[in-house]
Amino acid sequence: MPHIHQHEEEKFFLNARGQKETLPSIWDSPTKRLSVVVPSYNEEKRLPVMMDEALDYLEERQKQDPTFTYEVIVVDDGSKDQTSKVAFKYCQKYGSDKVRVITLVKNRGKGGAIRMEQMAIACGSRAHLEKESIAQRSYFRTLLMYGFHFLVWFLCVKGVRDTQCGFKLFTREAASRTFSSLHIERWAFDVELLYIAQFFKIPIAEIAVNWTEIEGSKLIPFWSWLQMGKDLLFIRLRYLTGAWRLDQTKKMN
Q1: Does domain 1-118 have CATH number 3.40.30?
Q2: What DSSP character marks residue 152?
Q3: CA distances in angstroms from 126 to 105, 111, 113, 190, listed in the order given
């Protein structure tokens, strides 16, 4: 299992009264039907749009079905703006039983932020929107996209058309098996996550989702794709040479 360094401050979260409470672990007994993890880096402007819509839906769902319980966990990935303060307002409004804010000491990347929180996996897919999105992209960006998709298929993951969609739903068991084996913390972490899931023979379903882009993405097209390409090669070589190993006993029958 990869070693995860956790600062002392990252072992706690603040409740609605501003008091420290110990952060639960994915290894603890479940207390909620659904946990929504929101990795955030410098998202003080975009976060409210997502939180308002998500919490309105979750609250309505709970009114319709009182047995449905949920929590939204915002992981501030070492932001330099007011992301944590913005998120904490929701904690004060809804209570820390429903909204928790974890602030990481330094930026770890999307995968690192999600892993710090934590037998089937459901992957949200935007592949059905591909024709529309291609029409809005430059030729160069479209070329980069197809190149990345080919590398994903050739080196790591087959059978998943959109590995990078931010919406992924895990059972608790699937999350504990995959995230405990994860090494990559930046943008290509989704690919390693699915690579691990396929190795463990965890069923994966790709489901079309409605997706709306909000201005302010931290993804810089050329350099981010270049870094992800390097990470894909790194993932393949590390597992191929045995530098990274997966526990065979975690495979599903």
Answers
A1: yes
A2: I
A3: 33, 20, 23, 15
